[in-house]
Amino acid sequence: MLSPRLYILNVAKDPTEASRISRESAKQIQDKELKLLDLVQSLGDYLTDDDKTTRAKAIGYLSSVLGYLDPKTLSRQQVAVIAQFLCDRLEDETGLKETSQGLFALQKSSRFGKEEAILVSSAICKVDLQKHPQGTRFAVLSLIDGLMANQRDALRAIGGKFVTGFAELVGGEKDPRNLMIVFSVVNVILVEFDIVPHIEILFDVVYCYFPITFKPPPDDPYGITAQDLKLRLRECIASTKYFAGHVFPQLIEKLDSTSLSVKKDVLQTIAACALSYGPQTISTHSTQLWDAVKFEVLNSTEEDELATEALSVIRAIAETLSFGLKFSTPTVSPLARYLSGIVKECLKLLQEPQQKQAKSAGKILSKSATASTVAHTFIVEKTMPALLLIHGDADGLAKQRALMEILNLLFQSTLQIFGTWGDLTAEQVLPNPFTEYTDKLFEMYSQALMGSLREELSLRITALKGLVLLCRTRRLFQENEIGMVVQYLDQVLLEVKEKEEIKELALQGLKDISKIKPNLIMDITFPAFMAQLPDSEKEADPSKPYTATLEALAKLSLGRSVFQVLLTRLLNKLDTVLRGKSGPMYPQAILSTLLYVLQKKPESSQEDIKTYFTRLVVPLLTKTIIPVVDNSSEFQDFRILTDDSILDVTGRLFNIIIRSLGFEEQINVSRQLINIFVLGIPSDYIPITHAGIVARDFKPLQQAANKDQARCTILFTYALAGLRREVALTTLSLPGLIQQNVELATQTAHPAQRMAHVYLVALLANKWMTKPGDSDLLQKITVNLLESVSSSILGSPEYDNLVGQKLQIVLWITKAIVVRGDKYGMEVAEEVVKLLGDKNYGQTASKGFAVLLGNDEFIAKNNYAILRPLTKQKIFTFCVPKIVEGFRVADTTTKPNYLVALSNILRNTPPAVILPELGRLLPLLLQSLDLPDPNVKSATIETLLITVTESADAMKEHISSLSARLLNTCTNREENPPRIRSAALRCLRTFPGAIRTELLLPYRGQVIRSLATVLDDPKRSVRKEAVDCRAKWYSLDEPEY
Amino acid sequence: MDGKNANPTILNASDLPTRRQAQRKKVTSPLTSGLVPAYARDPFVGNKDTDFSNSDESEDDSVREPIDEQEIYDLIATISDPEHPLTLGELAVVNLQHIKVTDDRSAIISNVLVELTPTINHCSLATVIGLGVRVRLEQALPPRFRLDVRIREGTHATGEQVNKQLNDKERVASALENETLMGVVGKMLETCK
């Protein structure tokens, strides 16, 4: 038989071949072509070989074959023979690893029984394991782990001998992978075996590893973390109550450790033990544990991790002691004994509620009160009388407030235990112990919130928070009490003199209450707020600004049903206001309120938004248009709706609603609007009384249109922006319409109207001029416009406004097509770069880059615009080198144009695109810091700020020139407004930390000296920046850890 | 507990007087923010109005805002106490009414007087706290100010002695040479806002 020999020859140099050989042998055995016993016998010579490795390899062959056998292949007898054979081999320790692997494979066999398990486990426990390398130990431990999984009853039957044997076997194990196995085996022993006689031994096996301080090596192939080991070890320690007497004194002693992570581990382990040892065991240790961990809370500070862990321990003990107590806590019970001690100590500290430890005491009480319903009841009953007494005796508001903070902590526990209104969880059987105190608390908190001076802000905030907590707690307050709280919150919110801080909380409170009792908000808050809104601007009381009321209403109306109510009421209010011949401000504010809510609606409620088309779009359209064609209609007072500012908001409402409509609906809407705005055909949207007149007289896009009519184009543009590009505008002649609007845009001096025409052109070009041939048409228009620019440059030394306007339109058309990847767009961009060198039109061209790269709200994804990705990158790579070159050769009068263009590009390009180019751009950026234009400077400083934080390396060579310029910017008050001075200081402040200290140290003295004069800046905000900046540079030489 | 107060009375941070809050609260109504009309955002129109929309008094350099008590308080109230992770403001070591400033630009020298109230009258760290306040003010005020940092009369057992140390130039200078001491002071100043 050749196989053993071949295997032994190959196993070291070609393991794949070796395993192929053994797999083949296994197959032969399974196919009964080979007898297992023959195979074992064929090993005979090798097993007595003088070379240790040959002996091990021979066993390895057998093990490998066993591993490939189907578990059902071997007979009962074969298993017994092989088991005996392998156990005998254990005496030859050279092959321990291979023998264990063989046994591991064997024990998986379905005929491996109890006797074999006893045989194997007894034999293996005699091995002197720790002298073997970790891989061998792993094989042995895996065998035991396998036996524990498959033959647990047999191991348990061996009993004490196995337990002690195993303990001895693994003693001293240090390898993390092996320890993971040891811990899980020990855990089974601790939980399922009779361990009482062996507590000490097992405790020593486990506890000697505590605390785990293992740090995984950087290239650890097994990926075992310290946390994995900690958790498994903690499970062992917490798994049996018999450890309690040993474990707690030891853990408590380790609390004195100076290492944070050890202390954290200790506290988490105590908590795990407290939760699992059971009430009887814990009752004997509860006092000892409380005495040990309380200091971690009492001496802690805000947000202290250890304090949080210690609180969990305190709570865990209470939770375990609550076991079995459903209705009350008998005074003799361990829970009562434990909690009484805590209550007594905490109440002592709470006598002076302002002191540092009082807050910790409050936290202890409130955390313990979340352990169980009975614990909660016990703590509330035992502390409330005393706490109320302290509040009553408090000699100052600050003291009262501090105590109320403590009460609020307890309210939070109550909320946690009893839940909030409408919770789906089952209700508690026990009554809420606070019920007894609701009247008193309601009075006390109401008094603090509404009866104290307005300036007592923190007291009132505490009271407000407490009241909201009490309102939210299930079945605590009566409906009328919650109603009262709603009224308080309304009052706070409506009062102008209230600080923003408390108003925000009041609003949040109302939002919280609207979730549990929406009827109260509709019945109390809405009428109260609506009553605050005047019927006209003239009646507006400056002490009750309607904007604040509208804002609060908007924020409370995000829910669907509430918004329906708001919509009806505000539209009625709008009519009333308009009929009173209002100015534009108040109507605009009302419409903005509706817009705010629609904008805040999540994407998911698109369906919801489109239902407002008939309620908002159609009536607003009617009310805006009819007055401009008929000044004797019932809407004659509504003409103010054609004010620019109102049209803009109305337009946005149209836009947001129309774009949420479905495709079919949009087709219909587009036809109707085109009929009204372009074709002069009667529309269903206009009431029958005026449909004819509107068709005849409403011509906003005609040259001769009066101003009010012309401005209505704004609405058409916003509506068009919201249409899908697939909605074909079949009734329109697009080239004609574009040409018409190009002309209108150049002719009007009215900014809002001009933008409406310009955007109309851009929208049509982007979304609807996409057929072959369309591009040529746009090119023709653009070329025409550009020609008038170049002929003006040649023909006249003066700036011609009309030509400037034309150039602007060129840029908007370019924007529209360049974002959808039209190549012609880039050609125009190149022309625009050339124009930067022109003394008349260079400035317009430089601003044009803000158009080309800026994020536009019309040509945007949510408006179905065609946007190709990476447009900005393309323009950046295409234009920036040309700009850098142009700048180099430009004369001084036009140099600024290049810098402005660059700053417009940088401002609108993602940093990731800019950073690789920075080296080349920095010289330009530095020069633009010398320009007087504050906007360029501001853009440059913004860019530099990003550069310093994200790509400090690029800055290295420029620290000197940049810091000098920034210092010059913040010290030169003549040229730089405070905002720029502050920005320069902010930029300079980012150097320390972003750039390596040794590169900065040479400039430290200079910066600190120069900043001394900025400390005397006339503006406080600049001084503040200077102080912060200087502090950063001062701290430079301090050693960094 | 010699010279340490483990359980001092703490003021609520939001109750402390500060100008910062007022500055931060310059919010525009959410109804109108984000509602700049489309035409006002035309990049071609001179953007003085858009970029500097809320240009107010704070942009006008002719109105000088003098350095006053509140400004000094804001500078030092956020310094941390060396033994508690609380600020000098929260511990009422620094109080607005115990700061006096004369900011007179016509005179060569202006004055700042800060009186500190230790949490207990034998506080062993009073000198260090005083030094921290001094260092902070030296770094944050223009050189024309003369600083006087002292312990408020009757609030410390050895107040006189501490005051001598705090206002003795040479002693302060030698304290600043001491690395351990400066380490402590650096830690205290880390929380300055």
From TrEMBL, chain A:
Keyword Calcium: no
InterPro entries on file: ARM-like (IPR011989), ARM-type_fold (IPR016024), MMS19 (IPR039920), MMS19_C (IPR024687), MMS19_N (IPR029240)
Domain MMS19 C-terminal as annotated: residue spans: 549-992
KW Cell inner membrane (keyword) present: no
Pfam families xref list: MMS19_C (PF12460), MMS19_N (PF14500)
Localization per record: Nucleus
Organism: Tuber magnatum (white Piedmont truffle)
The entry's keywords: DNA damage, DNA repair, Nucleus, Repeat
GO cellular component terms listed in the entry, alphabetical order: cytosolic [4Fe-4S] assembly targeting complex; nucleus
GO biological process, one term: iron-sulfur cluster assembly
Classification of source organism: Eukaryota, Fungi, Dikarya, Ascomycota, Pezizomycotina
Protein name as it appears in the record: MMS19 nucleotide excision repair protein
Similarity-based family: Belongs to the MET18/MMS19 family.
Domain MMS19 N-terminal: 40-299
Automatic annotation (TrEMBL), chain B:
Domain MIP18 family-like, first and last residues per copy: 69-143
GO biological process, one term: protein maturation
Residue segments, region Disordered: 1-66
Official protein name in the record: MIP18 family-like domain-containing protein
UniProt key word Ribonucleoprotein: no
Entries under InterPro entries matching the protein: FSCA_dom_sf, MIP18, MIP18-like
Protein family (similarity comment): Belongs to the MIP18 family.
Residue ranges, compositional bias (Polar residues): 1-12
Keywords: Chromosome partition
